[in-house]
Task: inverse folding
């Protein structure tokens, strides 16, 4: 059974505090319509349970994260976009490293982490994922 510690992270997870660290998000085929990346990309999908996956730049390069994804995931990554930990915090989202958490039947990506949307309302999720999208779009593919 997982228990949350005093920071709100589940057992084996820890909050990332380096504001300058980039968090890589894979842009996969279904996230692009008519050549435009969907604004929903930076938020959770229903199967994420409020924890959309990212990769830490202090652990893996953008290319390395994309290569790992393309070798292990069902859908191919077209490119990689990023937000920084500081940008996530600015939008009131915590970055949580869960790379050491053992998940039954899953291979964990190097530097795996997530942005924590778990306690947000539907409207808060929409607003924050859109703000992250605008931030990442300004940066472009990394």
Result:
């Amino acid at each position: 059974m997982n228990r949350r510690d005093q920071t709100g992270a589940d057992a084996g997870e820890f909050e990332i505090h380096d504001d300058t660290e980039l968090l890589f998000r894979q842009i996969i085929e279904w996230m692009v319509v008519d050549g435009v990346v969907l604004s929903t990309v930076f938020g959770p999908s229903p199967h994420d349970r409020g924890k959309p996956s990212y990769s830490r730049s202090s652990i893996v390069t953008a290319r390395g994260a994309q290569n790992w994804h393309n070798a292990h995931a069902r859908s191919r990554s077209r490119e990689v976009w990023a937000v920084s930990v500081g940008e996530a915090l600015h939008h009131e989202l915590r970055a949580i490293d869960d790379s050491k958490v053992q998940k039954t039947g899953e291979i964990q990506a190097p530097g795996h982490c997530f942005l924590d949307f778990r306690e947000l309302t539907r409207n808060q999720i929409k607003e924050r994922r859109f703000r992250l999208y605008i931030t990442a779009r300004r940066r472009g593919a990394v």
The longest strand covers residues 77-84.
